[in-house]
Amino acid sequence: MIGRRGWVSLTSVAATLLLWFVLTTATGLVSPGRFPSPTEFWQSLNQIATRGYAGAELANHAFHSVRLVVLGFLVAIATGVPLGLWMGWSRRAEAAINPIFLIIRPIPPLAWIPLAILWLGLGDAAKIMVIWFAAFVPAVINAFAGVRNIDRPIIEAARMLGTPRWRLVSEVIAPAASPMIFTGLRLSLQAAWTTLVAAELVGALVGIGFVLNMAQQDIYPGMILAGMVTVGILGWATTLLLGLAERRALAWNVAGRD
Amino acid sequence: MGSIRFDKVDKVFGPRGSGVKALDDINLEIGEKEFVAIVGPSGCGKTTCLRMVAGFEPPSAGIVSVNGKAVTKPGPDRAVVFQQFALFPWKTVRQNIELGLRNKELPKAERDELVAGALKLMNLESHADAFPHQLSGGMQQRVAIARAYVLDPEVLLMDEPFGALDAQTRVVMQEELVRLARVNPRTVLFITHAVEEAVYLADRVAIMTRRPGRIKEVLDIRSIREAENWDRLQKIEDVMDLESFVHLRTQIWKSLREEKGPHGG
In the listed set B119, B152, B185, which residue is the last one of a domain according to the structure? Predict the structure, then answer.
């Protein structure tokens, strides 16, 4: 069932794993203090999954991180997409909002962390705020571009059919912009994960970023890698879920299919 | 009901004073249930004429009116069929056709009945739940025509509706449109650059000049069609072989050719 390209990919993965084993366990070219061997990695993963590390078990840390990402991401969608649609539709809204947006946009989301902690403390609220900021920007920009790229006859057809304002937005403009909106959401999700890890590195008592921070202080490479791999898997899984939602929502869009 | 009138209409694109004059003193009256085609060199502003009746663009001077009322905005009394179909790709065929009826706030039972009628009229029954991308160009344009007809519009505006179709499909659609016009006659403003199509479909053909577009002459096709009894022939190629048809076609060709001038159109 695996095609030729599938075999190439599998071989590539197997070779990388083998290289890892050779460089660490077999030859010791990379010292255990710099990068863990496969065994150390596995033991660390086992430790955090069953006995816990940094005050909680892996599931607990992961749940906490995922919760923050999802909350920040949802707030960003709920605010960013409507704002982008509005700016795309109304030249006046664009003229009013765009300059402010252009000033704020170059500030890296992580630069908001000190201010967020100052305002909201070390708890979840500050992290959700920073994730929101990070995920907000791509959501706005892509929704905006999505509206601007709608073919004019589509809008004219809707107006010719006497479509009232609200229905025009919900049944014509939003779906017409939705391929671009989803592109924005994918970027938003990525930004949300990046920001989460950074925010938890700076100040947290639970979560994957906190695990990474503790493992660094404990000089524990196996646990650092376990944390990194966990974030990778969680990011991949959430992206996969978003992709499924996109496939479902854009079933009509032949251009969006592979 | 359903007359269209252009009264001393000018259209200038770009800034006032320095803009490009696209239309110059257009005067044309289209009677109730009359089918008028506008032909002209590309860029002559024929599509702009249609867009002004649709309410997509205001005239720079003069008045465009439908049933004696100046056009101010788009509306379902003036249904448009676009060259590029302009279907909603996220809606099924049925949903595309139904949107205008929902906008009119008709009850569900009535909508279902009208949509079923429109599907039947355009031979789309077996594709009712397909998405537009699953259909051929000809089928998509059938949906667009059904979407327009189901509104029961006073005026039907067709902007080179068959321009994006291949030659065979185009002929089928032209015959279809003649059939429709008999079953359910409407006031039609039809834009095309295909002379044969205009002669075959229209009661009158208006010929436009190059930019700035003016109406150069208006030919009466209907009286000749009726005198020569074109309707006895089913197939478009048989009609196109008739001497009277060829004569009209040549007349329009010559008139357009004068317009192409040194730039070759």
Answer: B152
